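Record type: ASSEMBLY
Status: queued
Input:
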Amino acid sequence: MVRPPKAAPRPMRADAQKNYENLLAVARTLVAQQGADASLRDLARKAGVGLGTLYRHFPTREALLETLLRAEWDELGAKARTFETASAPDDALVSWLRELVAGARIYRGVVESMMAALADKKSALHASCAAMRAAGARLLSRAQAEGTARTDIDGTDLFALVGALAWIGDHAALEPRAEHLFDVVVSSLFVRDAERVRRKQPR
Amino acid sequence: MVRPPKAAPRPMRADAQKNYENLLAVARTLVAQQGADASLRDLARKAGVGLGTLYRHFPTREALLETLLRAEWDELGAKARTFETASAPDDALVSWLRELVAGARIYRGVVESMMAALADKKSALHASCAAMRAAGARLLSRAQAEGTARTDIDGTDLFALVGALAWIGDHAALEPRAEHLFDVVVSSLFVRDAERVRRKQPR
DNA sequence: ACCTGAACACCGTTCAAGT
DNA sequence: ACCTGAACACCGTTCAAGT
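Status: finished
Output:
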């Protein structure tokens, strides 16, 4: 059902193709250094390309981010499916959240773009973000069904907490404690042992 | 020990005084609407004042924010002291955190400025932010001494979590769940009942 | 089909010139 | 002592003109 927008992406002219790839390569390092709000003008300059060329290939900043993040997110989607079948529901949820928070941190400020994309259905990032949220919701409800995750949170809450944790990781001063704070926050997603439904396999 | 920078703040010339107050009044509503990164040019324009006048009264954006937030923060400091003497340590911590998160949300994006201020000792906001963090640390260690708060977190962690929760509140899409997520995250600060040190007054 | 760069409307910040 | 606004160096975005 989800399909790349252009069913038959006719090959680009050779010079266009080269510009496109160069732009992406430069963008990858620039966004890694400066964050998701890096100067587009600077990007065009560093890629040795006119401003119009940048806008032709990536009509919005989100289109650019979308391309930068697609590989990352395809991988995260695959991991969600793996965890779903290979791990206990609660472990699967924690492992995937860890990956997602790490993924949201490769580019500083990217969670901000994700939030905006979720609110705007026409955004180039919308579909991928919604898919992420849905994958998280699935892992969550699996853990809830098992009785390990608290039932008063949903997929949106989960996404909010991921954003909050990514916010922490985006700040150099807090980064040393980011992993620990991940554990602290994630621990709150699960019900206390005492209230836990009995399960066949005690861990 | 903490004292306003100018021990004897000589009275301003009448016109300067008027500009200063007008600037503050306009800034209050503008920053409330647009967030902490509102356009300074726009502010000067709306206050009917030259750009240089704005910069004369508030040499940096942080100086402006500092003035806007000082009243708010003086109040929060007082509340910390009240809670400290009037409530059980864990209740005091939770109540104060709730106030702080609410306070950090009056202006969108203000936690970002707080983070920057804590990292930069010369910032106009530094002292007030550090004082906030210290007040939180005090309330935390009180709850830790009592045995209700987990001991593997410190004042910086607390501040990080406040920032994370404020981040959630800054996003309209998440705001409906902000209060609930506050409860979820804050619950993780306390040790599980089973591990809790016995206390004279069971609640 | 694709590229370029000038043009437009915005920023933040500084500072010479005015009163 | 205080104010003003032009000037400078940046943005993002659009679009006429070129190949």
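Annotation: Chain A is about 65% helix and 0% strand.
Annotation: Residues 12-13, 15-16, 19, 49-53, 56 of chain A lie near DNA strand C (CB under 10 Å from a C1').
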